[in-house]
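Methods — Computational structure assignment.
A single polypeptide chain was analysed. Its primary sequence is given first, followed by the predicted tertiary structure written as structure tokens.
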Amino acid sequence: MLQFGSTQLTGNLLLSPIAGYCDLAFRLTIRPLGGLALAYTDLVNPRGLLRQTVKSMELIETEPADRPLAVQLYGNEPDWMADAARWCTDHLDLAAIDINMGCPVDKVCKKHGGSALLRQPAEAARLAETVVRAVSVPVTVKMRLGWDEDSLVASQLAAALEDVGVAAITVHGRTATQAFRGRVDVDGIAGVVAAVRHIPVIGNGDVKSPRDAADMIRRTGCAGVMIGRAALSNPWIFRDTHALLTTGATPPPPTPVERLRFVRRHFDHLLRIRGERRACITFRQRITWYTRLIEPPPGWPLTRDGREASKSDRVASHVKGWRDRFVGLSSAAEFSTLLDEIAECHAAAPADPQARQVGRLARIG
């Protein structure tokens, strides 16, 4: 378990605030799978938040089932950041406020936010101190090892952040200029762990499996792990990782029915929260990540003459066809029809008796 100041979490696995993906609908869909101790909103601009722009209000949208939750803010103006943090804690039930010092995207860094703050560690620490003083909930920071290989400031900055009252630090084991290229530097993360005295450090980067998470903890000494992109293609990674860390074994993989049920419930949340048009648009953007969730089962004959194609041919044929139709998705009825077809494909496969028992996915809640 992790503790951020006064916030006690039930585990040590966190969902990364992936811009454009970890919205309310996704969080509501992934939480019931288990293992997730804390989720974050997408990064939010404090000026937009205080002006209550439509986009900012959508980014911080939440519901009682979406707990525990932290709001992540980005920017370089201490007073705006503090005021936005105060507004969030006044209006939302939050476990923490997180300051983004790790986003390497140009449009964030050009505004001197995100990982651009790593170029001025002293100012970054002063910004964090201002936010800490403004709110009663724990303040955390997500950062990288430095701006580039010549300015690896993470350990120095982590110590300074602890001194000004930051309650926890998440470290992505790359520099800003690396973005997502190259390998994560686990020694760099271990250096941050060694630099702080009492607060937890969470490791982040290239955690693609439960074993990767266990190795991250073992090799760095970090108190927890933040998982991002891997959760988009395998939403059960938190459940499986928690099981591995607590019992030494992982549960059986999700069945085809469970995978399709996840896809169905995610779309249903989008439909309820955003309406039909925007639900379809949003889902088009997600389907690349969901390819393995709709993959045809073994034993499904795809060739018209009845001969069974190779696995690669099966995947290429059916997944491409399904994905192309998802990309053109325009209505909830179209979504249900397509998901029913995928479910029937699974149900007809000899290797998937459970799908035959469950039947059409449109009827699954």
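Note: The chain has a mean pLDDT of 89.
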